[in-house]
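Quick check before the chapter quiz. The format below is the same one you will see on the exam, so make sure you can read both the input and the output lines.
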Amino acid sequence: MGSLRGLRLAAGNCFRLCERDASSSVRLTRNSDWKRINGFCTKPQESPKPPSQTYSHRVPLHKPTDWERKILIWAGRFKKEEEIPETISFEMLDAAKNKLRVKISYVMIALTVAGCILMVIEGKQAVKRHESLTSLNLEKKARLREEAAMKAKTE
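Here is the expected output.
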C-alpha cells in the first residue's frame, strides 16, 4: 500500500511539472498571437477586399395567422385588427406572446387566491352547521346499509 501511495505522489508531481512547462509554452504562443492581432506584425497590411455579395441585416418577417393577430390585440400591441401590418417581425410576436403569458399567469394567481378564500369560507360555514367529513361519511354508510337491508327484504 505504501509503495502505491508513493507511486501516485510521484506521478502527480511529474504531471504538475509537465503541465507547468506546457502552460508556459502556450502563454508564449498566445502572447505572440496577441502581438499579431494588435498590428505589431512587420508585414505590410493588405487592403481588405470588398465583399462579393452585399448582406442586408433585415429582420425576417412573418405573416401572422388569425390566432396570432388575436394574440397581438390581447397583448395590447395593437388596438384593432386593421392596424396590424401585413407582415410582422418574429420578435414582435414573441414579445406579444410573452406579455400574454404574464397576463394569463396573473389571472391564474388571482383565481387561485379567490378559490382558497372561497374554500376557507365554506369550511367555516360547515363548522357552524356542525358538519365534518367523518359525520357525512357515517351518514352515507348508514344510508347505504338501510338500502341494502331493504333490498334484501324484498328479495
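If your answer matched, good. The helical segments are 2-37, 66-74, 90-128, 133-154.
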